[in-house]
């Protein structure tokens, strides 16, 4: 890990800037959505809502894991053969994301997009621009350019809110607001994420099959996102009305804000974790596991109390009385977000050490248990899904933060004893 005081100070400043830029980004997202919805109305805004959902899911399930894959690779090695292989794997992942996004829009063009073929072209543009953004951010984090990473977050926010304001002033149609989603990620290139950087000369240490790690990472992220973002669909499947689906969506979209914002902070944590994993004493990395677990449990308690007290009045002010969730769901939602934050940072232990199979197994088990609770419980649909959400996030945190690390450390000790 970096020990030079001036470098450490610069990185600490970069960390602070990431926090500030993340806050700016969150405000920009809310501003863009408010401007677009008020300008376009409920019907005109519907295609933007669908595009946003598709964009978010593909980012969290495919593009963000690819970004983290590059970050880790750059920390471990500057060997161009290894990095070419990593970039090829990333290109395959980005192509998969584009195919899924464009394919979805083509299949639902009549249902969600008024049969307007421009949305197919726009979706392809969104996938390409966000893939470039993810690759750029992975390069910035891997080279420990955290100030540049913060700049990329702020630049995207400026592009998003600026484009939304311009479209509203000119009273442009829905398609124009969708085009903003294409160009906002491209503004991040002003941070020069691909500028040449001198290598650190470290010998290649990257795993022999980096592509398999990316596959495991995508599978793990898919399972975790089904737990945190699949709630509205689950409400419908367990008998919830359209109103119940809307209530769950608005409530938990608001609650997910801290987790969504924390995705940016992961870029600061992953390089340090990776250096620990590649150091002389990899066991130091796993000492973070119980700390993260305790922090996640503490956040769950605070989240339950805070959300239980504040969420319902806040929802009523923002969306109206009809969207207020049940008290139990509000309290459980806050607890689940705290657990989810802990699980997100526990996940980075496995990304840093390239233990993708264990990561995927942990999240798969959490998803299975969450679905089991969903099937067995006999509660109001919203409370039922909220309970399954808490169980899934809690299981993920306990497995990734406590159970699996015990196995990893004990196995490492057995290997060390065998060598001696």
The helix-and-strand class reads: mainly alpha
Order of helices and strands: HHHHHHHHHHHHHHH
Q: Could you give the distance between the termini?
A: 27 Å
CA radius of gyration:
21 Å
User: Could you describe the largest sheet, including whether it forms a barrel?
Assistant: none
The dominant shape is globular
Mean pLDDT: 88
Helix content: over 70%
Please provide the count of β strands. 0
As a percent range, the share of strand residues is under 5%
Number of helices: 15
Low-confidence stretches: none
Detailed description of the structure:
The chain has about 425 residues and is mostly helical. The chain contains 15 helices and no strands. It folds into 2 domains: about 1-205, no CATH class; about 205-420, no CATH class. About 85% of the residues lie in helices and about 0% in strands. α1 packs across α4, α4 runs parallel beside α6 and α4 crosses α10. The longest helix is centred in the first third of the chain and has 72 residues, at about 5-75.
